């Protein structure tokens, strides 16, 4: 984990800015570091926040690092000779923190998973403060390829922490996968239940519609039945005739000539068919009356309970039936 190369004394002054990386052996993550000519060290806040698990670098800095321990790259470097590689990763507005800021960020992190990184950072800070630099012991076996980077030995405590962390992560992955399988099964079960409920609702609607049609037919039939006064059920009055209907209407209202003309036309239809489904224009043509007069006569017959309305037909014509009491 680390900055390979020569160790520098903290009191030594530099002519230019040094750019070095600390390599965290637990994950291979690189924590960049700027060493200023005055010997002060600065670290990109994004590197540290990423390893500590902070969601937002800006919020982490505002919450845990005072202004005097953080700044941007352009302000920190000032007029010094800037020996940093060009590119997006070293933008002029890159947020930096000093050693105290680094300590504050590490101490503020409470996630158990970042404990190995916190331990390593503490070791780095202590070594840098004491010796001016930090380096690892080189591994016994080095890469054979020409130009390959130097391999460093991983401390035992860090290796043990990695093993524990990986085991914990594997367990979490298994629990997550099991939870996802359970969730999918529940969603399928809910979908099946919803489909069954919809089918039941459609069947219920069909039954209700059939009942409505049946009740309408019963109501039409019942209009032709009359129970004797105080009589027993099942003893039916004789079926109405045109003559009996007209006689009944004469008793119910004072019949004018126009009303009687309409009555003579519609009474036979009501008796024979049980209902009248004829446009007003047709009745007017048969009676020689105006449509308006025909409508007034029908309204008068309804008012005196001779007939009653049953809505409208498909062609828009009104539907009337006998009103038997």
UniProtKB/TrEMBL annotation:
Q: Which GO terms describe its molecular function?
A: DNA binding
InterPro entries, per the entry: BRO_N_domain
Entry keyword annotation includes Secreted: no
- Cite the Pfam families for this sequence: Bro-N
Q: Domain Bro-N spans what residues?
A: 16-132
The protein's UniProt keywords, in alphabetical order, are:
DNA-binding
In its keyword annotation, does this UniProt entry include DNA repair? no
Give the protein name, as stated in the record.
DNA-binding protein
């Amino acid at each position: 984990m680390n900055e390979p190369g020569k160790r520098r004394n903290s009191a030594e002054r530099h002519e230019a800015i040094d750019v070095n990386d600390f390599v965290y052996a637990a994950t291979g993550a690189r924590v960049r570091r700027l060493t200023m000519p005055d010997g002060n060290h600065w670290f990109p806040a994004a590197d540290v926040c990423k390893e500590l698990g902070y969601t937002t670098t800006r919020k982490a800095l505002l919450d845990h690092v005072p202004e005097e321990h953080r700044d941007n790259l352009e302000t920190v470097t000032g007029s010094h000779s800037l020996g940093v590689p060009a590119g997006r990763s070293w933008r002029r507005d890159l947020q930096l923190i000093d050693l105290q800021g680094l300590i504050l960020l590490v101490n503020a992190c409470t996630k158990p998973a970042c404990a190995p990184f916190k331990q390593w950072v503490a070791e780095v800070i202590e070594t840098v403060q004491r010796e001016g630099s930090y380096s690892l012991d080189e591994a016994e076996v080095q890469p054979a390829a020409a130009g390959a980077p130097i391999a460093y030995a991983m401390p035992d405590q860090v290796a043990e922490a990695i093993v524990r962390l990986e085991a914990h992560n594997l367990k979490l992955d298994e629990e997550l996968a099991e939870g996802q399988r359970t969730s999918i099964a529940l969603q399928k079960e809910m979908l099946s239940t919803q489909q069954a409920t919809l089918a039941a609702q459609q069947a219920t609607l069909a039954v209700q519609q059939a009942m409505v049609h049946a009740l309408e037919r019963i109501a039409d039939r019942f209009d032709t039945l009359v129970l004797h006064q105080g009589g027993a059920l099942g003893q039916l009055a004789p079926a109405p005739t045109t003559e009996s209907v007209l006689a009944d209407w004469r008793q119910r209202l004072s019949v004018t000539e126009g009303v009687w003309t309409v009555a003579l036309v519609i009474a036979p239809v009501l008796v024979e068919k049980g209902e009248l489904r004829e446009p007003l224009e047709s009745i007017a043509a048969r009676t020689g009356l105006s449509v308006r007069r025909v409508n007034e006569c029908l309204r008068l017959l309804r008012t005196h309970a001779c007939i009653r309305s049953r809505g409208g037909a498909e062609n828009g014509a009104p539907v009337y039936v006998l009103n038997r009491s």
